[in-house]
Amino acid sequence: MRQHLCILSVALSLGLWARQSPSEAPRSAPDAPTQPQSRALPLLQQAEDLDPAPDRVLVRLEAAPSASGPWLYAYNGLNPGPLIRARKGDTLTVEFTNRLGAASTIHWHGLKVPFAMDGVAWRGAPVGDGESFTYTFTLNQAGTFWYHPHFNTENQVDGGLYGALVVEDEADPRPDQELVLLFDTEQEYDAQQDALPDGDPGRHGHGHARLGPRWRVNGQSAPLIHSASGGQVTRVRLINASNSAYLSLRWPGLRQIGSDQGLLAALATPESIVLGPGDRAEAEWLLGGEGFSVVTEPWSLNGGPALGDPVELVQVQLQEPAPAPQGLAWPFSGEAPGLDPGYADILYQFQGSDRTGVWLINGERFPNVTVEEVPFDAEVVLEVRNLSPTEHPFHLHGLAFEVLSINGAPPPRYMLEDTLNLRIRDRVRLRVRADNPGDWMTHCHILPHADDGMMTVLRVLEP
Ligand code: C2O
Ligand code: CU
């Protein structure tokens, strides 16, 4: 039975490639060299599209307690949940059924959806146990997104409820292979509960920092082996779905092509890619020579680069030696960063500390917050200041923001984001076009911080 499931999932992922690139022979699935400590990197299982219309994608997601394994919950019995794949311009419909035994929602992280589809329990009820809700919206952005509950979020995301959502742009060149890597840390919630004598799930954020996170990639404990063919180009989509752990990813010849909101304005070749919780990036692997390892360097939310050895996450092994291919002609926009106008319309100050366990924005604790209102389609400058001794990934729902300055200096390149890490004492200015009416949650994506109150609301008025 287990084997059948494996064959089925491989067939599903190969089917995807056959459908999208009929001229390319599908690559064989990674076959695991039998080494005791390293297993094959699992590919994410793709959700079946139940609507035959070419511009509509219909998916069913059922959330329920997990039948096995370390997870508390699963979507469609899978950890991570199924990969949803669609094209820019498609209408995505997700029929959600909640069988968790507790209320839940689904939030579409990074997507500009109508407010009623945003999956938050502000000005509306969550989806009760045994109930269903149909989410439907048009996908107007291309990029690497993800979905997760936005109710009792820390518990439910850590318990295993999350999945990747990829929106393709038909203008992009076709790589030989595409890989989605969803990173998570092992059982933060459980480990913390175990670590506390009284099992009080209300205190988080202290337990795992000492141990150092143990990473999973696509649900499997790292390190993992990915077998590929030399001479090929792989588009790699990276998502940090951890509740509170940071990645600082590095490999030789790193080429970053995208971030939260699709392709970058130009190719970037940073030393490493730092992804806070909720953050995404896209990279291009030009496979040649010996193969290489993807590692994460220790990064502490109490101050960034930390002592310790890099941890190997994925070892890329090349089956046939071949010279590395050229990079693809990604349609980068070439856009320059916008100018900081020297003022801000709205100021958010992030405050709090591990010592007090109280996390605030502008001295307020969600849901007792001041709702800032902006007119529809206005251009608004936000200033976000981190006044706490901890880093925070700032996240805004329903809109995207352009980074205008970081600590008074222009950003290294044009940056359009929905999640941006604020290091200790950082002060950033962000430009938002208020083109989507609704009450948009604005919060730290370290889920224990958000659940403890580090969340507010930016209201875009109806036109
Ligand atoms: Cu990833 Cu408020 O969400
Ligand atoms: Cu935070």
What is the count of helical runs? 5
The main β sheet shows up as: 7 strands, mixed
Kindly report how far apart the N and C termini lie: 55 Å
Mean pLDDT: 89
Low-confidence stretches: 1-36, 189-210
Total strands: 34
Percent helix: under 10%
* Structural classification: mainly beta
Bound molecules: CU-O-CU linkage, copper (II) ion
Sheet with the most strands: spatial strand order: 12-11-10-14-19-16-17
Shape: globular
Regarding quaternary structure, how should these chains be classified? single chain
Walk me through what this model shows:
The chain is mainly β and 463 residues long. Helix content is 9%, strand content 38%. It has five helices and 34 strands. The strands form seven sheets. Strands 12-11-10-14-19-16-17 form a seven-stranded mixed sheet, with no helix packed on it. Strands 1-13-23-20-15-18 form a six-stranded mixed sheet, with no helix packed on it. Mean pLDDT is 89; it is low at 1-36 and 189-210. The structure holds CU-O-CU linkage and copper (II) ion. CU-O-CU linkage is lined by residues 107, 109, 148, 150, 278, 395, 397, 441, 443, 445.
Short description:
The chain is mainly β.
Primary descriptors:
globular, 463 residues, 6-stranded mixed sheet, 34 strands, binds copper (II) ion, mainly beta, 5 helices, binds CU-O-CU linkage
SSE topology:
Elements lengths: L1 H19 L18 E2 L15 E10 L7 E3 L8 E4 L3 E8 L8 E3 L22 E7 L4 E6 L4 H6 L4 E6 L8 E9 L2 H8 L11 H5 L3 E3 L2 E2 L2 E5 L4 E8 L6 E4 L5 E4 L2 E7 L4 E3 L4 E7 L5 E5 L2 E2 L3 E2 L5 E8 L27 E8 L4 E4 L10 E3 L4 E8 L5 E5 L4 E6 L9 E2 L1 E4 L4 E7 L4 E7 L2 H5 L3 E6 L3
Parallel strand pairs: 1-13, 2-5, 4-9, 10-14, 13-23, 24-27, 26-34
Antiparallel strand pairs: 2-3, 5-7, 6-8, 8-9, 10-11, 11-12, 14-19, 15-18, 15-20, 16-17, 16-19, 20-23, 21-22, 24-25, 27-32, 28-31, 28-33, 29-30, 29-32, 33-34
